[in-house]
Write a structure and sequence with these properties.
- The complex is a heterodimer of chains A (310) and B (222).
- Chain A has 310 residues and is of the alpha/beta class.
- Helix content of chain A is 38%, strand content 15%.
- Chain A has one domain: TIM Barrel (Alpha-Beta Barrel).
- In chain A, 52% of the residues are buried.
- Chain B has 222 residues and is an alpha/beta fold.
- The mean pLDDT of chain B is 97.
- The chains are: A alpha/beta (310), B alpha/beta (222).
- Chains A and B meet through helix 5 and helix 6 of A and helix 8 of B.
Chain lengths: 310, 222
């Protein structure tokens, strides 16, 4: 896959290295220190940092502003954009704004339904869906066109990504859905948190058999568990999450004060196993409100130091 | 059909309590089928309101009539003389009927007795579920006859979101995932290849987004 954008993340994976990303959730307020503080822990251990877009539909500082904060501190952001809150005018407009600040990575998402968040009575937009958002960015980047047909004055040079959940239902369309996202323009994929490794490996194998792993960089998503309580919560309460019972058993088998350490250990073991899976090109480490653990995970998994590219 | 459900008695009372003579008007169409505003519901609501006002020591006349339709000039005309004798009309028709009534009897206060909910079907007695949002450009041909606009909480056009679990939607275990239904149906039709066809951006100008809509069929106009 040839390099098409100035994205560092793209260059690193194109050069054959594992890409490593992590994420920062913007604050529930306008405190300008939160993002730099979180990013400070991880910036030297990852290639780019995703900034979530009002995740779980809880209103937060906007992803674009937080990405600009990162950019200003010399960190490469991945702008997450959901289709829940903005129509096609606003989405295109934000893409241009991001590009104007040198943001070169975007992740196109549907977004969690607003009923999970703090504005349950609000409308959702869903003017377009995440696949159509992928098409939109690619149209703007590759053709230099707006959706309305007009010409752009300067193309947004975005490395375009999508999310994929190998564990959601119906399972038989998980690979066709990946194919569809690639056809829509996805160049990298960040997956849902992986705990059921066998199922994930089956999904990658099927993707490989269709030649999809040659067309897209699959970044395996991992999230360290802080406690057995978190593991149970993820299993029972988070839609589309597949947490095997053995994992809960393993977490319950260690003393409470050692569970966090065990969670980190599991996370490192997961990455080490998945590094061997052909078709896995990187890792997306989502240490939710636990950013300070990212360096330990990256080092433990043998992904440090990060490669340097032009 | 249009599915509606009756408003709570307290809300209805709040709308009409300052009047003395109310004409309660039912409709024989959709709201009869969904048991929200037909002749039977008019009778029950009228009795409940009479009892309420009697208990609260207020003189209130509530008379009943049920029209064939409230979304049609012809039937609304039937109460032209009658409505004059009342302070206000309480309509148990859908929002269309209520508005048509208000347009026709311009100086008569008209109040809604039901909440108009959606376009749906009777799944079983006492259970109505949504099937259509009247987007104005039907895509059922491409989705196996199951509508993602009305049945997916995110109206996704190209497949399920990551929240689809065991055939259910992320918003509720009671709600079917529309895309699970679509995939099941495409499988049954031997058309799974269709799933991978990208659905283009939808033209919402025929939907609410395009402003108030109208359908004109010139060949039948008088």
């Amino acid at each position: 896959m040839s390099v098409k954008t100035p994205s560092k993340l793209e260059k690193i994976m194109a050069a054959g290295h594992f890409g490593v990303t992590s994420e920062c959730g913007p604050p529930r307020g306008c405190n300008p220190e939160v993002i730099p503080h979180k990013a400070g822990f991880i910036k030297d251990y990852v290639d780019a940092i995703n900034v979530t877009d009002n995740q779980t539909a809880m209103t937060r500082m906007c992803s674009l502003a937080a990405c600009i904060k990162l950019k200003l501190m010399g960190v490469e952001p991945v702008l997450q954009m959901v289709c829940r809150d903005r129509n096609r005018i606003a989405l295109q407009s934000d893409i241009l704004g991001a590009a104007a600040f040198g943001i070169n990575n975007m992740l196109c998402l549907s977004g969690d339904h607003q009923s999970f968040g703090d504005c349950r009575q609000g409308q959702n937009v869903y003017d377009i869906d995440s696949m159509q958002l992928l098409q939109t960015v690619r149209l703007m980047r590759d053709e230099g066109k707006f959706l309305g047909g007009g010409d752009l004055d300067g193309r947004p040079r975005m490395f375009v990504g999508a999310a994929e959940n190998p564990f959601a239902d119906p399972f038989e369309i998980r690979v066709p859905r990946l194919a569809k996202k690639i056809a829509a323009g996805a160049e990298f994929i960040q997956t849902q948190c992986i705990y059921n490794l066998d199922k994930f490996e089956l999904w990658v194998k099927q993707a490989r058999e269709r030649g999809l792993t040659e067309k897209v960089y699959i970044m395996a998503g991992v999230t360290p568990m802080k406690s057995v309580g978190m593991a149970k919560y993820m299993k029972n309460r988070v839609p589309g999450m597949d947490v095997p019972d053995e994992l809960i058993k393993r977490m319950s088998g260690v003393a409470k004060e050692k569970q966090a350490g065990e969670g980190v250990k599991i996370c490192i073991e997961t990455i080490q196993r998945l590094k061997e899976v052909p078709g896995v090109k990187g890792f997306h480490i989502m240490a939710i409100e636990w950013e300070e653990k990212v360096p330990e995970i990256v080092k433990g998994a043998g992904l440090y130091p990060r490669p340097v590219v032009d | 059909m249009i599915v509606a459900e009756q408003k709570k008695l307290e809300e209805i009372v709040g709308q009409i309590q300052d009047f003395n003579k109310i004409l309660l008007v039912g409709c024989n169409e959709c709201v009869t089928v969904c048991e929200a505003g037909g002749k039977k519901e008019v009778g029950i609501l009228a009795s409940a309101l009479r009892m309420y006002f009697l208990n609260h020591g207020k003189e209130m006349t509530i008379d009943e009539v049920t029209l064939e339709r409230q979304c049609d000039h012809e039937y609304l005309e039937e109460i032209r003389d009658m409505q004059d004798k009342y302070d206000a009309v309480l309509s148990l028709a859908c929002g269309v009927g209520v508005q048509f009534m208000a347009e026709k009897y311009h100086d008569k206060p008209v109040y809604p007795g039901v909440n108009t909910c959606f376009l749906g079907a009777t799944e079983e007695r006492g259970l109505w579920t949504e099937r259509c949002q009247a987007c104005g450009s039907c895509i059922l041909a491409y989705t196996g006859g199951i509508c993602p606009v009305s049945r997916c909480a995110k109206r996704l056009m190209n497949g399920p979101c990551g929240g689809s679990t065991n055939g259910k939607c992320e918003i509720s275990k009671e709600t079917d995932c529309a895309w699970q239904l679509i995939v099941n149906r495409l499988k049954a039709l031997g058309r799974m290849d269709d799933y991978e066809k990208l659905m283009p951006l939808k033209d919402w100008s025929t939907d609410r987004a395009g402003g108030p809509r109208k359908v004109v069929k010139e060949d039948v106009q008088l």
